[in-house]
Design a protein that fits this description.
Mean pLDDT: 85
Structural class: alpha+beta
Number of strands: 13
Strand order of the largest sheet: 9-12-11-10-13
Largest sheet: 5 strands, antiparallel
Radius of gyration: 33 Å
Helix content: 40-55%
Low-confidence stretches: 6-13
Strand content: 15-25%
Shape: elongated
């Protein structure tokens, strides 16, 4: 039964016994009193006290029987409700329970996990929902089916192909291409220190290896920090900062000012360093694991 428990409690005169609590139901109370005629109700504790050394075991057995009866009754009601108003969907299979199979979707997972008694069956590769949870499943089904259709491979492919014609996709493709070049526009008159980690607006904390004399294209839209027409920009070559370098770097006392962000680089703050260190530490662990697997 829902909201039920049984445990030992003290009693005047050291009489042994156990306390039982369960959700109020008139028929359940009658069954409880037939099973435990010596039980006494406590208004103060809002529970039943059953005397006896074996009270805990007997109450536990009775509660288990009640839970089983409640489940059978709920399943019977759920089957009737399903027969009267079924869910028709390619994602739902009806057996001795309800089985849900969909493409992977975070939304579907969240909805199914919120359904009482729903569970994942690894062997069936499906979510199993007992009929007693049918009403909750039906309430959530529009969201589940919508998310499942959205996650279908054909639908994902269609969205990817449609996105290729958008400006956002083209801009993202350009930015990815720039990142692979490991270059960054820097103001020629205000260059960062070489071989030291600095924070950037585009790539987080990096280390600049060199600054070439090659002028950066003034119309390069991938870099918002390099859009001023009155400043000459040159390309700086960068690499990701290593964990040891990040650990040695002292954080800035204050957040970067507007002019520092505008030029595109600044001394990293403690919060920025913590994020970069965590990422670098994770990356080093992955590289070490890969090396050990290769060596093994």
């Amino acid at each position: 039964m829902e909201h039920s428990d049984a445990h030992h409690v003290p009693r005047q005169g050291n009489a042994p016994g156990a306390e039982a609590r369960f959700a109020f139901d008139r028929m359940a109370v009658e069954r409880f009193r037939r099973a435990f005629p010596r039980a006494r109700w406590s208004d103060e504790r809002k529970s039943w006290f059953v005397p006896g050394k074996t009270a805990t075991r007997r109450i536990g057995r009775w509660l288990a029987q009640e839970a089983e009866m409640f489940a059978l009754h709920g399943d019977s009601k759920g089957r009737d409700a399903f027969a009267f108003d079924p869910i028709s969907s390619s994602y739902l299979e009806v057996s001795n329970d309800l089985r849900v199979r969909t493409p992977y979707s975070k939304t579907v997972l969240e909805e199914l996990r919120a359904i009482p008694w729903a569970s994942w069956d690894d062997e069936l590769r499906a979510w199993r929902v007992p009929f007693r949870s049918f009403e909750e499943l039906r309430r959530r089904w529009p969201n589940i089916e919508k998310a499942a259709r959205h996650a279908e491979p054909e639908e994902r492919k269609r969205r990817r192909e449609a996105a290729r014609d958008t400006e956002a996709y083209k801009a993202s493709k350009m930015q990815n291409a720039e990142r692979r070049r490991h270059r960054y526009p820097l103001p020629a008159e205000d260059l960062p220190p070489l071989a030291r980690p600095v924070a950037t607006a585009q790539y987080g904390i990096v280390v600049f290896n060199e600054v070439s004399g090659e002028l950066a294209e003034p119309s390069l839209a991938s870099y918002p920090n390099a859009m001023r027409k009155d400043i000459d920009y040159v390309w700086g070559r960068w690499r990701s900062a290593r964990l040891a370098e990040l650990v040695r770097t002292w954080p800035a006392r204050n957040p970067p000012e507007a002019n520092e962000r505008l030029r595109g680089w600044w001394q990293p703050t403690l919060a920025e360093l913590r994020v970069a260190r965590r990422h670098a530490r994770s990356l080093e662990r992955k590289m070490l694991s890969r090396k050990l697997k290769t060596a093994g």
